[in-house]
Structures are given as structure tokens and as C-alpha cells.
Specification:
Blueprint: H1 10-28, H2 42-49, H3 60-71, H4 93-105, H5 116-133, E1 140-144, H6 147-162, H7 167-170, E2 177-182, H8 188-195, E3 203-206, H9 216-228, E4 232-239, H10 251-261, E5 264-269, E6 293-296, H11 298-301, E7 309-313, H12 318-323, H13 354-364, H14 366-389, E8 393-395, E9 403-408, H15 415-431, E10 438-441, E11 447-452, H16 460-481
Parallel strand pairs: 2-3, 2-4, 4-5, 5-6
Antiparallel strand pairs: 1-7, 6-7, 8-9, 9-11, 10-11
Helix pairs in contact: 1-3, 4-13, 5-13, 6-8, 14-16, 15-16
Length: 482
């Protein structure tokens, strides 16, 4: 027998859980007293976290103290109200508790037999998400790690369904395939083409208009040119919220072209799909309902803890058509209505990702999500208004969802110096703990400050602090370099 019992009785669970709950609360509250990100650099962080692998145990109380002393202070807080850099939301308290329950159940949602309730919960949550995004009720889907993998899965299904030959059996034996997408797409679409053997050059980048949306006339032109050159057009990606500016492509028009040209229509809604819940959401999001596949991320605009992505496919059976193997050692006598999600997935080991989303949706209700997403959209509009009213700041791109791009433009600064100044302001905002934002590279090679609102803790006063500080720092840094 081992020297230590790995199991705990109920009293031990209560004692340790009570202590660790204090650590969870410390990581999840008192936001205004901390910075959005730590001052310490990589060397100091690694040095403080470095430990010799333990031969004998330390107590749970000592572990909790270690986390409170070394891990929490050295973390970046995507739940901080002034964390506006990336499209990753801080997990809701209900989502954190949902993760705890899911970890305790520890279900591998590959086989129904091994995870009956977890499978049913994932399928139920997929039904809710189809309804929330306007996706057809007949469609199927599953949870994956995030939008990146959801998009890879979508491209694999499109390739297998529309290539014109049995790609799974014969490989890429036919004419070279072509995928069409906005020049503003996330890099994962080109990565998917690489992984699927299509090659990065198979992704044809379509020019965008002055609002950073795919130009449908250019899409038609490229499809016709490729057909004439002997290529086989396969699919079109429409983006429901680009990473750089939050632009929403003209999805209904793209859907019409795909029907006319008999192409697969995929929508990358990893960021913006759930904006459809908000009253002021762009009308173009209605086009998601016409897609053959849709990627969306609950860990973005449903505020779920990482990780939680979803892929939806309109035609039942196509996920199995791309991924099922029916391994004999996993087959059991089939119960009526049983679904083995591994047959729709790249993963055999599948964590119970849906549980926290199922838990959160019931804990808060859809009306609360509608209101919260609408507030995020309103905060973006408010930031844009403040920029327009602040001297020496200017909007750099249209604001369609919840991404705002703006520039500091002090008098007498131009050229490369002006571009460098944008990055210096971003870095100084982070160094001073004012706000954690990112940059965007826009048309004409312009660099901009970029903030994205997918944060239920952000308030108008946080927006005001960041805008005012960006103007002040722009002037100070420009004067210092003069």
C-alpha cells in the first residue's frame, strides 16, 4: 500500500475545500486593488514559481498560501474590468463552480456508455446554442477547445463533403481546392488549410471595403477566375466579428453566392456569434442561420471559463462522415438514441466542456446574457464617443461590434514616429496598470490602439480612465521624444 491515501473522506473534503474556497475568492474579487497584469517579467515569474519536484507532500493549507503568494499576484487577469486586450472573457462565478462539479464527475464524453448524463448535457447545450445563434434546428454539433479547433473541424467537414471524391480514402487526389475568405480572417483558417493538406495558398484572400468587410463583387471575381484556371472552388468563410476591428461580413449576400456556386458556407463566429442575442446586434448576423457550419466560443461572449468552443454543422451525419472510425474495442450493444460523441470528433479523450456552459445558462438565464452583451456593445460605442470628443485622439476604424480602434495623434508627430508612438502608449498603459489593451494593424499600414469588450465587470468609469490616459500618455511620450 502507498504511504499516503489518495482518497479523502467527507470531513477532509470539507476542511480542504473551505480553505481553498478562500483562495478562489481571493482570485475572483477585489479587482480595483490589483493591476490587470503583473509588473514582473518572464525571468522573475519563472524564478518565483520554480520549485523542486516534491518527494513528500506539503499541506493543502501551505499549497493555498503558495498560490495566494506566488501564483495569483503573477497572473494576468482576463476578468479584470480594465482587461480589454484580447477576446477572452473572465469566467463567471457560476462557470467556476460548474468547472468544479465537472472536475469532480470527471467524465470522458467520448462514449455514451462512459458518460451518459454528460453526453445528454452536451447535446442539450448544443440545442440551446443553435437557438441562440439562429442555426437550423436540424443541425448537429459538439464542444471543442475553442474557435481555432472549431474552424479546423469545419474545414475538414467541408473538404470531405464537397471535394467531389472520397478524401478520407484517397487523399487529395483531385483538382486543387480553393477556400475564399476575407483578408481580415483569423490565421487559423490558413493553418487549417496547412493541416488538412490543402496548402496555405489554397486560401484565397478577398479584399475588404472601407469597413473591413469582405467585398462580394471581388469574391465573385475570384471564384470565376479560379474556375477558369482549373481550380475547384470549395468553400467560403464569412466572419462574424473579425479579430482586428470586429467587422461583420455581409453574411446573407455570401450565403446567396454560395448557393448559386454550390459552395460550402462556413461562418467564423468565434467572437461575434453570440452578439445576435443583443437588441442592437448587426443585421448581417442573421446570415449565420444560412451557414453550412458555424464556429462559436462560449468562453468569449458567454463569459465561460476556458476552454469552451463549439462547432455546428447543418447536415446531420457529416461530422461522423469526417471523423467516425467505429473502433471495435469501443463498440457496445447500441441503445436506442445513444450518441457516441467521439464518432463526431477529433478527440477520444473529451473533457466535459459543456457542463459549465449548461450550468451558467441556467444560473443566469438568457435575458441576463442579452442585457450583458448589449452593455458590452454600448461600452464600445461609449469609448468611440469619448475618443471623438478628446483632443489628439481619433477613431481609426468603424465600430460594429465591441472592438474599438483609435490612435493618439499629438501635433507635430507623423510618419514612422507616429506609428511607434501607438505601441509605446499601449505598453505604458500596461506598465502603469491603467489598462491592458492591444494593437491592431489597419489599412495603409497604420497601427492603432485596440480595446475589445467581452467583460461583464467593465464599467463606464474604466473606459473613461483608459481613454483619458491614452491621450495624456500620447502627449507626454511625444514631448519626451521631441
Amino acid at each position: 500500500m502507498p504511504d499516503i491515501d489518495f482518497d479523502w473522506d467527507a470531513d477532509t473534503w470539507r476542511r480542504h475545500a473551505t480553505r481553498l474556497l478562500e483562495t478562489v475568492i481571493a482570485a475572483s474579487t477585489n479587482w480595483e486593488a490589483r493591476r490587470p497584469s503583473p509588473l514582473e517579467g518572464p525571468g522573475e515569474v519563472h524564478e518565483r514559481v520554480r520549485r523542486t519536484a516534491p518527494i513528500t507532500p506539503i499541506t493543502i493549507d501551505e499549497l493555498a498560501s503558495l498560490i495566494e503568494r506566488e501564483v495569483i499576484p503573477l497572473s494576468s487577469y482576463n476578468g479584470h474590468p480594465r482587461w480589454l486586450a484580447y477576446i477572452t472573457a473572465g469566467g463567471t462565478p457560476a462557470g467556476v463552480l460548474g468547472e468544479l462539479i465537472a472536475a469532480a464527475l470527471n467524465q470522458n464524453t467520448a462514449l455514451w456508455r462512459a458518460s451518459p448524463a454528460a453526453t445528454a448535457i452536451e447535446l442539450q447545450t448544443i440545442e440551446w446554442i443553435k437557438d441562440m445563434t439562429g442555426f437550423p434546428a436540424r443541425g448537429e454539433g459538439l464542444f471543442v477547445s475553442g474557435g481555432q479547433l472549431a474552424n479546423v473541424v469545419a474545414h475538414a467537414v467541408a473538404r470531405d463533403a464537397r471535394a467531389g471524391w472520397d478524401v478520407r480514402a484517397r487523399g487529395l487526389a483531385g483538382r486543387p481546392l480553393r477556400i475564399y475568405a476575407s483578408e481580415e480572417i483569423h490565421y487559423c483558417h490558413q493553418q487549417a488549410a496547412e493541416l488538412l493538406g490543402l496548402g496555405r495558398e489554397s486560401v484565397r484572400l478577398v479584399p475588404t471595403d472601407d469597413r473591413y468587410r469582405l467585398q462580394v463583387d471581388e469574391l465573385r471575381r475570384l471564384i470565376a477566375a479560379d474556375r477558369a484556371a482549373g481550380f475547384r472552388p470549395l468553400s467560403v468563410v464569412g466572419t462574424a466579428g473579425t479579430v482586428g476591428t470586429g467587422a461583420v461580413d455581409p453574411l446573407p449576400e455570401i450565403a446567396r453566392i454560395c448557393r448559386e456556386e454550390e459552395l460550402w458556407f462556413h461562418v467564423d463566429g468565434a467572437y461575434g456569434a453570440f452578439a445576435r442575442l443583443a437588441p442592437s446586434a448587426p443585421d448581417a448576423l442573421a446570415g449565420m442561420g444560412e451557414a453550412d457550419s458555424l464556429a462559436c466560443d462560449p468562453h468569449k461572449w458567454l463569459y465561460s471559463p476556458l476552454d469552451a468552443g463549439v462547432i455546428l454543422v447543418r447536415e446531420p451525419g457529416l461530422l461522423e462522415g469526417s471523423f467516425a472510425f467505429h473502433a471495435t474495442y469501443l463498440q457496445t450493444r447500441g441503445e436506442t438514441g445513444r450518441v457516441d460523441l467521439l464518432e463526431r470528433s477529433l478527440e477520444n479523450s473529451r473533457p466535459q466542456r459543456a457542463f459549465k456552459v449548461w450550468f451558467e445558462l441556467q444560473a443566469y438565464g438568457l435575458n441576463a446574457y442579452r442585457q450583458m452583451i448589449e452593455r458590452d456593445l454600448g461600452l464600445a460605442r461609449y469609448l468611440a464617443e469619448l475618443v471623438g470628443a478628446t483632443p489628439h485622439l481619433e477613431l481609426a476604424a468603424p465600430t460594429e461590434l465591441s472592438v474599438v480602434c483609435w490612435r493618439v495623434v499629438p501635433p507635430g508627430v507623423d510618419g514612422e514616429r507616429l506609428e511607434d508612438l501607438q505601441l509605446e502608449v499601449i505598453a505604458e498603459l500596461e506598465r502603469q496598470g491603467v489598462g491592458f489593451i492591444s494593437n491592431a494593424r489597419l489599412k495603409g499600414g497604420r497601427t492603432a490602439l485596440r480595446a475589445c469588450f467581452v467583460n461583464f465587470r467593465t464599467r463606464p468609469e474604466h473606459v473613461e480612465q483608459i481613454v483619458a490616459a491614452s491621450a495624456k500618455l500620447g502627449e507626454e511620450l511625444a514631448a519626451r521624444a521631441a
